[in-house]
């Protein structure tokens, strides 16, 4: 240690080293025993992971539970990452799987408000409106409509239509073929359109 260097300074340097590593290096560091690497990695991507969990689970409490499950799973299974996909893709796959597992265990689901940002629903035939009362009513209708989908269709639509992933990226996250994603999205949209088409008609009138 350099004479006069404090313990705090050395800790700051260690934190800086973690912060400058790329995602794959952070994951390797975590596997190798770095006590801070996983927290740094999660901190970089927690907003996107939360967004995905919230949109799939449809309410904050269930999303928080699913995300906690995902963090634990990612922490424990980091050694299984082989680099075939980006670390973010791997993390999002863990999050989606945790959400799907929790959804399958839930015997009943409450209808809860969706997050404020629903702009991507324009891709499946709806147009957002500005009146706060109408927006609240629209959000309730969309939430109920999402509940009509099975968990796999909902996850595919959230990733492609709401999160903006390509079909190929969504396939990597969900661990299935691109054709499966296309099929799930097509079936999900076909089921949602009759339930949501009146929103577009109201917005266009």
Annotation keywords:
Arc Repressor Mutant, subunit A, mainly alpha, Rna Polymerase Sigma Factor, Chain: A, 205 residues, elongated, 2 domains, single chain
- List how many beta strands DSSP finds: 0
- Give the biggest beta sheet: none
Can you tell me the number of structural domains? 2
CATH architecture of the largest domain: Orthogonal Bundle
**What is the N-to-C order of secondary-structure elements (H for helix, E for strand)?**
HHHHHHHHH
Please indicate the percent range of residues in DSSP E strands (runs of 2 or more): under 5%
> What is the fold-level CATH name, i.e. the topology of the largest domain?
Arc Repressor Mutant, subunit A
Q: Show unreliable segments.
A: 1-16, 108-131
Number of helices: 9
Outline: elongated
């Amino acid at each position: 240690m350099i004479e006069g260097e404090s313990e705090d300074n050395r800790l700051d340097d260690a934190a800086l080293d973690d912060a400058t590593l790329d995602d794959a290096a952070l994951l390797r560091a975590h596997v190798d025993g770095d006590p801070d690497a996983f927290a740094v990695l999660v901190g970089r991507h927690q907003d996107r992971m939360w967004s995905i969990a919230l949109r799939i689970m449809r309410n904050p409490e269930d999303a928080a539970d699913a995300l906690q499950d995902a963090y634990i799973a990612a922490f424990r299974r980091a050694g299984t990452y082989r680099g075939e996909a980006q670390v973010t893709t791997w993390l999002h796959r863990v999050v989606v799987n945790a959400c799907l597992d929790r959804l399958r265990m839930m015997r009943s689901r409450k209808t809860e408000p969706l997050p404020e940002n629903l702009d991507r629903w324009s891709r499946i035939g709806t147009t957002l409106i500005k009146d706060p009362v109408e927006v609240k009513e629209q959000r309730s209708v969309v939430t109920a409509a999402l509940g009509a989908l099975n968990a796999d269709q909902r996850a595919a639509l959230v990733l492609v239509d709401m999160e903006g992933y390509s079909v190929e990226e969504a396939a990597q996250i969900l661990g299935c073929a691109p054709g499966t994603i296309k099929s799930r999205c097509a079936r999900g949209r076909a089921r949602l359109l009759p339930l949501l088409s009146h929103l577009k008609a109201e917005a266009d009138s």
